[in-house]
């Protein structure tokens, strides 16, 4: 997009490149050669709309890093570990049919609860089986996962969930 006059004062604008630093909770990133429009009248500056997307991706990556959330490539690796498509994975863990395409491209940042679930799936060999009901589970097996005290008087027989 080319801006020829300032939307505030209607004066002429010039295109220039600047160095911009963004800070979130004490952690900073710097974007070099950021193209902007500078008003020769009022001094207002505008970011080129075509550059907003890439800048937002960098800011989202900074946010994920500071907040301790998984980065997009880590989400891809978790999904691929189980061999599911993005749509299949979303059906199993939730988030909508296009959610994982957005998480994996970095256009949307996953919630803390989704991040926690993905970490559990990554780190626990039983977590996916529990979600997909593929493993026979009884109260005795669930004990360690859910830290439930086993009732010594009860018996445990394996039955498959359906």
TrEMBL record:
One of its GO terms (molecular function) is DNA binding. Pfam families: MqsA_antitoxin. InterPro entries: Cro/C1-type_HTH, Lambda_DNA-bd_dom_sf, MqsA, MqsA/HigA-2, Znf_MqsA-type. It comes from the Bacteria. SUPFAM superfamilies: lambda repressor-like DNA-binding domains (SSF47413). CDD domains: HTH_XRE. Gene3D superfamilies: 3.10.20.860, lambda repressor-like DNA-binding domains. This is HTH-type transcriptional regulator/antitoxin MqsA.
